[in-house]
Amino acid sequence: MQALKHYMDDGGLFDELVFNFCVAEFVILLLTAIVMVVWIYKGIAPQIKILKIAANNVKEGNLDFSVATGGTDEMSEVCNAFEDMRVRLKNNAKDRLEDEAEQRALISNIAHDLKTPITAIKGYAEGMLDGVADTPEKREKYIRTIYNKANEMNTLINELTLYSNIDTNKIPYNFQKLNIHSYFEDCIEELGMDLENQHIRLDYANYVDPDVLIIADPEQLGRIIHNIVSNSVKYMRADVASRIAITIKDVGDFVQIEVADNGKGIATKDLPYVFDRFYRADASRNSAAGGSGIGLSIVKKIVEDHGGKIWVTSKENEGTTMYFVIRKYQEVMYE
């Protein structure tokens, strides 16, 4: 070996061989680097271009595109992360538009429903000022009408306040043990007087044991009953004697309350939406009947916050029945 090296050194061949080897190695490394750069560029450049276009779309407010990929490399993960961000932005934008639409609907409904009693109050007040109510009977009638219309306005404002609390999950609750018999006897007595003045018959049946207790907020439970009954009153039929029936049943761990009427009923296609905020099954009919469109959505929220559920059955021109359940109070036994 030493002899070969001595021979090549003598001819300068060894140095040339080393030089050629280095050059060849450099060329191989250079070609490899070029191939790698081209391969990486071809793999990354399209995705970078897609991300650039996507970023420009987002900047312009256009979120109707997709950059999702099925790859597992780093750039694919970046694209998928960008896609997740786009979907969240789109959903947030959609929710914001829906909230804005709901706010506009609420303002429109409240404005319409406040205008009616305000107009009536103004008309009857002007009648009293102009001397139209010239007898004690007329004056009493005018004052009572003004009082009732003011109560309507107060109810709408209370609904609006409660709606605001619902939207922020800040409904104030005062849960306590309630005897189902005692509570509903008082409730029915109050409802009966109001419905009698409106020439609506109220039937009541309670099939629960007298000592059964529930855990509920008495004020909010009363709001549930009031809102359901008020909704029934709005859509009574003129061709039959109006009737509302409230039935209390024992269904195991729950007490079930049913509120049935013989009113106009609800179309089958509208039943899935009756508890949605601002939903009105018949815009023209509801416009005449009034209401903010949030009464039953408030009812659903309160029932669910009590650990219960609510549902409805109805047939057009036959009537509607609202059902909801409230959990019974049960003593926890410790051993």
Automatic annotation (TrEMBL):
This is histidine kinase. One of its GO terms (molecular function) is phosphoprotein phosphatase activity. It catalyses: ATP + protein L-histidine = ADP + protein N-phospho-L-histidine. Pfam families: HAMP (PF00672), HATPase_c (PF02518), HisKA (PF00512). The chain crosses the membrane at residues 17-41. Residues 109-330 form the Histidine kinase domain. Residues 42-94 form the HAMP domain. It comes from Pseudobutyrivibrio ruminis. Its EC number is 2.7.13.3.
